[in-house]
Amino acid sequence: MARLNPCLWIGTIALLLMYGCTTKPAGMQQGEFTPDQSETAPITRQPDIATSAPKPAVKHYGKELATVRRAITEKEIRKLVEKNPDLDFYGCIEILCRLNKKDKEYIRQDMKRKRRLIVPKNFSAYKDWSPLPGNIAGARRYSKFILVVKDINFLGWYQNGTLVGNTYICTGKMKAWTKKGMYRVQGKDPRHMSTYPNAYGEPADMPDALHIYDRVWIHTGDVIGPNCSHGCINVPIAYSEKLYDWANVGTAVLITESLKDLGRDIKLEAGGPKTESGARKTQEIAPKSAKEPPKQLLETAIKN
Q1: If we measure between CA atoms, which residue out of 208, 230, 203, 204 comes closest to residue 218?
Q2: 91, pLDDT greater than 90
Q3: Residue 235's beta-bridge partner residues?
Q4: 100: CB partners within 8 A, 6+ apart
Q5: Residue 251 — φ and ψ, nearest 5°?
Q6: pLDDT classification of 277: cutoffs 50, 70, 90
Q7: Can you give the three-state secondary structure of 215-237, one letter per residue?
């Protein structure tokens, strides 16, 4: 039997050790894969699709209604209006009036003199702002109800417990000059004259006046600050005319020290507001006309 050449055996074994039994092309190691250039390019990740409707953003009213005391100029407001189409110049001035309890002419004077004012950090948040509650459950038993809050110097008028109008006001210079309590509108006078003299020593005009008690009236008057009267409740002209036409003789009027006292004060007067004589009266008397003289209205009240 012929014997194999030893060199042939050695060469065969060397080839088997070098290539093994793989079926992969030569030059590629087993278990490795080198993709081409098109497959190594980065792939943009598609955004995840929400499986449920997104939750509405929570409004942080506390932050939106933040204010700061500083000087502000008309030029600054006009620039602000240019950037915010939902704002207008006079609307921003009105917001400053409501926050500072001053009429427009006094606010603009303060701005020109660079006096510090209460200024909102976000004017847009104050477009429909009022510090008064939109609804008062205890006032629903009155078809018409006027609320005066002394510590924030705001007045609101309510129809069946729902706020229909409100304004900043001025009350007495001394706290006791505007007395808290539940009253009725005793009379209406479109051209009332004050017993106190004005700056010229003449009887002061008190247009669109609603008589509340003693010598205290709600009427059109200058609001140069939160406490600027002899006890009357001064209302800016833009609001006093609306309030005068809306109110009737007999309309309930609550003067309270603060909103935290509101619920208690209404409960204390559950039997109905007092008239000047101290008698309780719950029926409102509708005027024959918005400008009817108060004497005729009072005679109507007495007959009823």
Answers
A1: 208
A2: yes
A3: 220
A4: 107, 110, 117, 118
A5: -60, 135
A6: very low
A7: CEEEEECCCCCCEEECCCEEECH
Contacts of 125 (CB under 8 A, 6+ apart): 61, 64, 65
Find all residues with CB under 8 Å of 237, minimum gap 6, and list them: 207, 220
Q: Do residues 239 and 164 make contact, with C-beta atoms less than 8 angstroms apart?
A: no
**Is 209:189 a contact under the CB 8 Å cutoff?**
yes
- 234 burial (CB, 10 Å; 0-12 / 13-18 / 19+) is buried
pLDDT greater than 80 at residue 283 = no
Could you identify the residue written with the tokens 């699709």? 49
CATH node for 137-303: 2.40.440.10
Residues 6 or more apart whose CB falls under 8 angstroms from that of 205 comprise: 191, 192, 193, 194, 198
pLDDT at 109 over 70: yes
**CATH 2.40.440.10 placement within the chain:** 137-303
234-273 pLDDT, tens digit per residue, is: 999 999 999 999 999 999 999 999 999 999 998 876 555 5
Q: How far is CA 155 from CA 35, 80, 95, 110, 168, in A?
A: 78, 29, 16, 24, 6
Cα 300 from Cα 304, distance rounded (Å): 6
Please name the residue that has the structure tokens 């030029």. 75
Report residue 100 as tokens.
């500072």
Q: Are 265 and 254 in contact (CB under 8 A)?
A: yes
| CA separation for the pair 13, 223 (Å, rounded) | 112
